[in-house]
Amino acid sequence: MNGERRLKIRFFMSLTLISICSVLVLATALFFWFRGKTIDYVNKANDSVLLNTETVFAKYMDSVQNYTLAFYRHPNINSVMQSGDSSWSDQLFSALSQIKGTLTVNPYLENAYIMGANGPVMMFENNPLSKASKQELFERIRDGLIKNSPFLWTATLNNGDKETVMMTYYNDKVYANSEYTGAIAISTNLSKLQENIFSDVADSDTHYAVLSPEGAVLMQSGPPGDDYDDALLKRIVGGRSASGTLVWKPDRGPKQLITYRLAAKQGLWYLSETSYRNSIRDISNALVLLIALCVVLAAAAAGVAAFVSHRMYKPIGALFGNIRSLSGDRPAFAGAGGFEEANQELERIAGRFGELKRENEDSALLSWLTTPYRSGEAVPSALPLLKSGGPGSAAFCVAVLRLEERIGEGETMNDAERMARLRDLPRAVEALFEGASACRGFFPHPGTAVLIVSEAREGSFGDQGIARERWEQLEQLVRAWPGTQGALGVSRLSADSSQLKALYEEARDCLQYMKFQYRTPIVYAEDAAQLTDAPMPEQTLEAVLQVVRDQKHELIPRAVERVLAEAGGYRAEQATIALSRIASDLSGIAETGAAGGIPRHADFLELYQRIWSFAGYEELRAWLEQLSFRAYEKLKERNAVQTRDVAGEAIAHIRKHFADPMLSLNALADKLAISPPYLSRLITESTGSSFPDFVNLVRLEHARSLLVDELELDIRTVAERSGYGSSTYFTTLFKKRYGMTPTKWRLNHIVQQSE
Length: 755
Hints:
alpha+beta, five-stranded antiparallel sheet, Alpha-Beta Plaits, Beta-Lactamase
């Protein structure tokens, strides 16, 4: 009962976890959906205010434009423009009073100018401009068209300060070639106009602003001292979008939700700035509600999971009860009571069924091979009858055919088609032997055929070479089947019917040689008996390991092919033992990274069985290459992370022990635990010389020092102290390198010192 309770709890926990995860996913999706909707609502509200601000500003500009048109059309003002005469008159006073009254009623209208043909004629200035600015304004209005009004202009005041104003004018120039006769210009003070435009939103949490095309703040709803982040303004006016929304985090202060739009006709940017936290206040409230909803749904899911797990356990519990019955070990299984135990038991049962199937096939085959024709007779019924009608004692042989799929061919046969073709093989064999044989077959499964071929009459087989030719024709016949190739093992001939089972085993064992021989579809027992029964030599096995140790990646496939070619000359048992040893060494290298390899003898039997189970050459070759490449990569990784400088150690050892006559590449390689070829390559890469050349260089340099520093030493002693056993050999090397004998070198040095 304890196991059943644990299983039910697992059901409950699994269903509860799935339900809670589903609730959380749904709640998360709802939250982000609501968040998007809320922010979208805030953006739409702000965008509506911006659009309204744009409309209001446009109306103000239209009203100013109407003022300029009315003043331009006034007869008295127009007369002053045309004549340039500003003499006093009642009519002129009335007109000028009208202009002054307009500026007084509209405080945001700052200056008004009456432009004549050659410059300003009369002006009303609340904030006087410099003389240069007035001239610049006149020239711009004189050359401009009506459609260019209004325009932003940065003017210079009399006190030298700069001020950006919106200048509106009327000059009656519609086309570029229209005649200029005068104009009326009125400047708008934007800092005063903002009080009118943003009066409705002055106390709002949202701030609004109007920007120039360059990103300068012209008007804003907040206090004049409120500055906007320059990076934000540059991002807005420098972007490609004419409208949009973004969340901005300034260097100081909380995040802000920014909405902006471009007024194409005016060339001005309108933006709103709202506290992001205030914008998502409703979202926070919704989040609390969603959390509460999740808790309620999770509790409901747990209740449903408890009910469902209880109902689901009934049929599953019955299934596990049946498994316990099959296992025959109810107490042990009931004590565990989990999915893992049930799965293991099912795998054990499946494996047992497979074993029973193979045992059944082997038993049926054995029965076929050994059962006599009639009770009391010794001749098995599997042997074909002689043409005379009796079992006879003619020579016979056994052939075992194993079918394999050809890789890379799309067309294949199913099991039924294979079995149908296999059952036709006995007649095909008899036809190939041209009536000289009788054949019977047994077919354990769609991939194997056991054929017993005997002489139709005693001595009818004749020449053995002809028989081999017939077997080759049979292999070609099988190869012609769609997507199929055959591996054929043929036993020797025998006339002893009691040897039938032994000949079958002989033919079956011939198939083991297929994995060692490249593209050999037929193996004859007579040929296999001639193979070497001695162990494979160590140097043959060492070839693959040496290539891996020397880090010669490109030579690994070739080395594996050579070992398999060598293994093809040995009995299957000896070849399998040798390859198992190679595989064990490679596995040890792949596991430890040690170049010497640490054979894992505990896995030797497993590797032997693995190699013995391989059916073909390509499969075995690919497996050995995989082991070799794994070992290669491990050694490569180990060499890459190795902290000590092997080449440096080798060079230091040579410089310290150069006088040792026993100094050699192999001895030094053993000391450093690397292969001699690898050490030789390291020294060549580091010094530019081979190992012998570098040793001679060090020795000769030392000898040269002895020749000039210790004049009392003779040449033989110098040679011995430099590591040379022969003074003649030393003299030859010295002269070859320095162009003179050691004695002459010493004399030259003495002469130079005396001079």
